[in-house]
Write a structure and sequence with these properties.
CATH architecture of one domain: 4-Layer Sandwich
Number of strands: 30
Structural class: alpha+beta
CATH superfamily of one domain: Aminohydrolase, N-terminal nucleophile (Ntn) domain
CATH class of one domain: Alpha Beta
Distance between the termini: 28 Å
Length: 687
């Protein structure tokens, strides 16, 4: 029998940043049987406060770590590893930019909403001092939260990789493209479904734990907010999800959101040349403290330089400056909030026109049977006479970019209501968003936008297109089968950056030590279900191949060494190579463990980490899943998260969704407040 706990806390909280009073007895947090918080309040601001409180209950450690990185003090918590983030964020200048622009770029209703969220975080910290990791973090501010958004945007847009290449001395004339990151999204119009409803698959592939793992919530205010979806710790609204009118998903896209410049510096390294004039090369110090021995804090500093292009760094090859779009706008959080509140396609597109979210594909569907795809990006207008895929000359204003002069939104690759009846993206080229006659057409503008060119597919996109090729009308079960498909396509693309076709082409007779392994892999049906022995051998081998790779190693040599290592691990730990995937790949937390299907870059992706006992522990890929049906009679939602909302070890909500997740089951969600309150396990008010 369910236990209903109602905690009545009649407390009035004042948002000290706005002066607005919030009666916390009017803010209700109702936890369903899986621990998902449904937050009800008369106002948007009340919802923000309630969301902050619930996130702190569930993910206070992660939230504090992110805030520590934003303040440049993560090293005082994480030691040497934290110092890397502390120095990096000072290089980027994000916090300084936020502080300078906050009052002008963050205003109106959203500022009140944001600072109500901040008030909720600070109230929780004050009420639970035993959970505070670093006292100097509090009180947090609106600036701190926005800095966290920009830090995340730098990661998601891939811009941080250019910074890593510069400071590690690995930059060269050709900037390598980003490796594929995960996430799937697809929308099916009513013409292609058997029940005449519009379907949307929200299927982000993220780390299962940590800073950018998903947190599910339902936010409902009497002012018009009512949305179910996923956000991150420190997220003030839903990042992807559905309200009673529309929904959307994100996937990472790969355009040019970052530029690198080679500077022409004078002999004494005090100035650099721009258009025939010397400009001062301003020296800066990034400072941090590393915690060692559990208590001692050692100061660390690194030199960088300030230029008109962005931060610059001295390397053995010269001085390189870095410019990144994620650090040039504070509108990201507000744009997501306005997407949460949108009630139709026009309002949703108005929110997109803010250009605060600087990257990511968007797949959209609504109750009016609109389906829409756009490879979203805040991309500056660039002079086409330069090759923007390479290191640029840093001695001319012609290569300096600005957030104030962007490629128009309508010029981005996009398609609305294609005749084919569906749109999708799996981090593949935006020029395959549906069948070829229904996709955006690549043009010369892409030379300066830098989107993946036509034909740049991955295993997931190729497999999705295979599944849709013969599909006329899909039932909801067909739709779910596509989403949960775990088979590699008939023609392999690279897996984890490696050409695995070599495994399929090797002559097993020439490799007697691994002949038995090769024969099983080569006859395998390419499905990664839990019963499959072929999947076990394939996955064990590709993870081993990744470990033994070398710059000068031939592909077949790498495959052979991977096969040998994988076979040795299997024999040592299981006594045989005839091991089904259920025994190899696990979804686990603490003492709880379930067999896990899937593999890298199948539609139902799972990325794993090798364990000492020879097993593979799922650490990324399939994470938050939300499937939505829109019809004239309303919206139906099913969802699941990898573990549950809580990160607190041993807490019931830290493992409440694991079994469903591992067995590819979904839980039903509802907007119905009365039903939610009737069935809730806990109902309470924040303090």
């Amino acid at each position: 029998m369910k236990r209903l706990i109602t905690i009545l806390l009649f407390v009035t909280s004042v948002n000290v940043l706005t002066g607005q009073s919030l009666n916390t007895d009017e803010i209700v947090i109702a936890r369903d049987s899986f621990g998902v918080p449904h937050i009800f309040a008369p106002t948007h601001d009340g919802v923000a406060y309630g969301l902050a409180w619930a996130q702190c209950e569930d993910q206070f450690t992660t939230l504090q770590e992110i805030q520590a990185a934003c303040r440049g003090v993560l090293g005082e918590i994480k030691g040497k590893d934290g110092v890397i983030a502390d120095i990096g964020i000072q290089y980027m200048g994000i916090a300084d930019f936020v502080n300078a622009q906050y009052d002008s770029q963050v205003s109106g209703e959203f500022k009140s909403y944001l600072e109500s969220y901040v008030a909720g975080v600070n109230a929780y910290a004050a009420s639970h001092p035993e959970r505070v990791i670093l006292k100097k973090l509090f009180p947090v501010s609106g600036q701190d939260i926005i800095t966290g958004y920009l830090l995340g945007s730098t990661e998601i847009s891939g811009a941080g990789r250019d910074l890593q290449r510069i400071i590690s001395g690995r930059i060269d004339r050709d900037l390598p493209k980003n490796e594929d990151k995960g996430s799937n999204a697809f929308a099916i119009s009513s013409d292609k479904t058997r029940d005449g409803k519009t379907y949307l698959a929200i299927n982000s592939h993220q780390p299962l734990e940590g800073w950018y793992s998903w947190y599910e919530a339902h936010l409902q205010s009497e002012e018009g907010m009512d949305i179910i979806g996923g956000t991150f710790a420190g997220g003030v609204s839903i990042f992807l999800g559905a309200n009673q009118h529309l929904g959307w998903a994100h996937t990472v896209n790969h355009a040019d959101f970052s530029d690198v410049y080679l500077l022409e510096v004078n002999d004494d390294k005090t100035a650099y040349m721009v258009d025939g004039e010397w400009m001062p090369l301003i020296k800066r110090k990034a400072r941090a403290k590393a915690k060692v021995l559990g208590f001692l804090k050692i100061p660390v500093s690194r030199t960088y330089y300030e230029t008109i292009y962005g931060p610059a760094f001295e390397t053995n090859e010269g001085f390189y400056a870095w410019s990144f779009m994620a650090g040039k706008t504070l509108k990201m959080a507000e744009q997501w909030w306005r997407m949460n509140l949108a009630s139709n396609l026009n309002e949703f597109k108005d929110a997109l026109e803010m250009r605060g979210i600087v990257s990511t594909n968007i797949v959209y569907a609504d109750r009016e049977d609109n389906i829409y795809y756009v490879s979203n990006g805040s991309i500056p207008k660039r002079d086409p006479k330069y090759d923007w895929s390479k290191v640029l000359p840093g001695n001319t204003m012609e290569t300096k970019t600005s957030m104030n002069d962007l490629v128009p939104f309508e010029a981005l690759p996009q398609v609305l209501n294609p005749e084919c009846g569906w749109v999708f993206n799996t981090n593949n080229t935006p020029f395959t968003a549906s069948f070829s006659n229904c996709s955006p057409v690549e043009n010369d503008l892409n030379q300066v936008m830098g989107f993946q060119t036509s034909g740049k597919e991955n295993n997931r996109s190729v497999r999705f297109l295979e599944l849709m090729e013969g599909a006329e009308k899909l039932s909801y079960e067909d739709f779910k089968a596509v989403k949960y498909d775990n088979r590699y396509p008939s023609a392999f693309r690279k897996v984890r950056g490696m050409d695995v076709n070599v495994l399929m082409k090797m002559n097993s007779a020439e490799y007697p030590e691994v002949k038995d392994m090769l024969e099983i892999i080569q006859s395998w049906d390419r499905r990664t279900n839990v019963e499959s022995v072929g999947a076990s051998l394939f996955l064990s081998t590709i993870y081993a191949m990744h470990d033994v790779r070398g710059e000068l190693m031939q592909r077949e040599e790498q495959a052979y060494k991977g096969l040998l290592e994988a076979k040795q691990i299997l024999l040592e730990n299981f006594g045989t190579i005839q091991v089904p995937l259920a025994q190899i790949q696990k979804h686990s937390r603490g003492e709880i463990s379930f067999p896990m299907a899937g593999g890298p870059d199948v539609l139902a992706s799972i990325y794993s980490e090798k364990q000492k006992d020879g097993t593979l522990r799922a650490i990324g890929g399939e994470s938050y899943i939300e499937l939505v049906k829109f019809g004239s009679d309303g919206v139906e939602i099913e969802s699941i998260n990898a573990y549950g909302n809580s990160e607190v070890p041993g807490h019931p909500y830290s493992t409440s969704q694991m079994e469903y997740f591992a067995h590819q089951k979904l839980k039903k969600m509802t907007f119905n407040k009365e039903k939610i309150l009737e069935e809730a396990i806990e109902i309470y008010h924040p303090q």
